[in-house]
Amino acid sequence: MGRVYNFSAGPAVLPEEVLREAAEEMLDYKGSGMSVMEMSHRSKVYDTIIKEAEQDIRDLMRIPDNYKVLFLQGGASQQFAMIPMNLMKHKKAGYIVTGQWAKKAYQEAALYGEAVKLASSEDKVFSYIPDCSDLDIPEDMDYVYICENNTIYGTKFKKLPDTKGHTLVADVSSCFLSEPVDVSKYGVIFGGVQKNVGPAGVVIAIIREDLITEDVLAGTPTMLKFKTHADADSLYNTPPCYGIYICGKVFKWLKNMGGLEAVHQHNIEKAKILYDFLDESSMFKGTVVPEDRSLMNVPFVTGDKDLDAKFVAEASAAGFVNLKGHRSVGGMRASVYNAMPKEGVEKLVAFMREFEANNK
Ligand SMILES: *Cc1c(COP(=O)(O)O)cnc(C)c1O
Fold this sequence. Notes:
By secondary structure, the protein is an alpha/beta fold. The protein has helices at residues 16-24, 44-61, 75-87, 100-109, 226-231, 241-256, 259-280, 305-317, 342-358, and strands at 5-6, 67-72, 92-97, 114-120, 144-147, 149-150, 155-156, 168-171, 188-192, 203-208, 285-286, 297-301, 320-321, 332-335. The chain is built from 9 helices and 14 strands. Strands 2-10-9-8-5-3-4 form a 7-stranded mixed sheet. The protein has a 3-stranded antiparallel sheet with strand order 11-12-14.
């Protein structure tokens, strides 16, 4: 079998052009006589790779000069601890709990101080984004935390919460580089790259400089201080070199597509094909309230577990793989990240139409 249409929530589909280029450069990167996997992170050739990657993500997201871009490890989950360790000066932070990843971050923060649940959508299986336009936020909170796109439930903040002047921290793992963002509205934006940007093993954190200080919680390990990595331009220790190199290629691929405005338009078109079908189908139903639907993760159900399983199995046999939904939602989930071609979504919908006709 050749390449499939991979709807995995993560690790997820990457642009085929990027994979081909990486394959071509595998044995001899630009005349260095070695693979990027084999070279010193202190070498001149690698320095160019990481510096270009940083510049390209800065260009794509129009990151202001007073923000650092850090390439870190430990997954997005490690940030659940690094954020309170570095930012909880008054040992109090607000969390908006819109899914399992936000909940995990909230629970982790509670290990370090008082984590206050400002709002939640758990009452309806996280199928919507709560109204965050006028939250009751205590004055002494160090930051307000959100998970901007909820990978498992398929919801997205279309409007950022009013933090009443508090620092906004956002986990953007599953919507990273999927649309333009105004970085200046955030204190910290971070994401594991394996959803929309690159191979697992790299986390990118974009942090406003005034939040990077030595004033961290007592006992914070050197490796978990933002300052350690910021001072060393992400080269304090050996970074995930190969992963950063692939991210860099994806950044160039996004630039070639016309930048995040163009990528966003493309993502809107792709998601619309799927949502329009879900709205007209009498078999398949989306699980999220329409106004909060994610452009990246699209959960849906038939309402019949056996039929769901039959669909997942037949879809997989037809080359549409990883459509099984998360166990907490059931049913199906199609993740349609940047690198999923429009054709993949069109073909999936055609397959769903046919399945519906055959299983009436
Ligand atoms: C996948 C995911 C995580 C966890 O990422 P790891 O890199 O596995 O730690 C956290 N947040 C969101 C929104 C995710 O989608």
